[in-house]
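Narrative of activities, Objective 1.

The group set out to show that a structural description can be obtained from nothing but a protein's sequence at a throughput compatible with the screening campaign. Below is one input-output pair from the validation batch, recorded exactly as produced.
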Amino acid sequence: MKVELFIAGENGTEIYIPAVEDGIEWSTERWGVPGKLTFKILADDILNFSEGAAVQLRVDGAKVFFGFVFTQKRDKENRISVTAYDQLRYLKNKDTYMYENQTASEVIRMIVGDFALNAGEIEDTGYVIAERSEWDTSLFDIIQNALDITLVNTRQMFVLYDDFGSLTLKNIANMYVQNDNGTYLMIDEDTGRNFEYTSSIDSNTYNKIKLVYDNQESGKRDVYIMQDGSNMNQWGILQYYDTLSEGENGEAKAEALLSLYNKRTRNLRITNAFGDIRVRAGSLLVVNLNLGDMKVENFMLVEKVKHTFKNEEHFMDLTLRGGEFVA
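Output recorded for this entry:
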């Protein structure tokens, strides 16, 4: 395995290939967090870079990470600890947006243009959002709100990520990690060294959905309720409450939310699995594990992943969701 790290110099013309100490970590999350690369290098008389410098990581020639230095920390032994983020870091900027009759894809393209970001493949999300106002909100949240509205109304989930310097949006249906022989990447007892598994109704579990809309025409408040009496008897009332925007279908949204949240959440984290650079947050892979009270034999969505490259070895820690598993 050949791991190569490149850093652009201070004036932008030199490219450094520094010696790395203690390995390299690359991590991604499915939403709201930029891709991150961390590493330690030894300072010398030649190395000269600063915040904003471009950073590339390639493994066996394959493009893995492209981003920019945001933090460097030095110690008395002349080591520099560097943190670089990919282009998603700029989505932490805040702004105010008001838009009408736009899809989430169009919202993303609008933001990309306004903030001079580089876009790659942006899949069409299809669903048109009638009207939306976002005040003093991070670009991350503006985009995620549009994708959440799309999810509720279409049950189609999309993942936004940086593909080596290009913002990319894909439907998770196109995120399967598939091998050349047609099989899918699988995590089992042999490829994952350890796991942590929990089951809970304490977070993101709701058996009653209540949505309200202040109807200006009638002067009344419209209320939409969907609930599961069986789970309410078993778990007590766990209510999700929200307001509706003009044009939203309250009954359909309440039904969709109940379908999404009326279940216990199971969390599965795999540690020290054999690494594969094709796996990023948003990827789908096969999990075949006996967890004690249940056996998992299906596709699961990667919610978070941390890749570690060290001493000619590559391992990854995965947080997974799928079915009753919610990361």
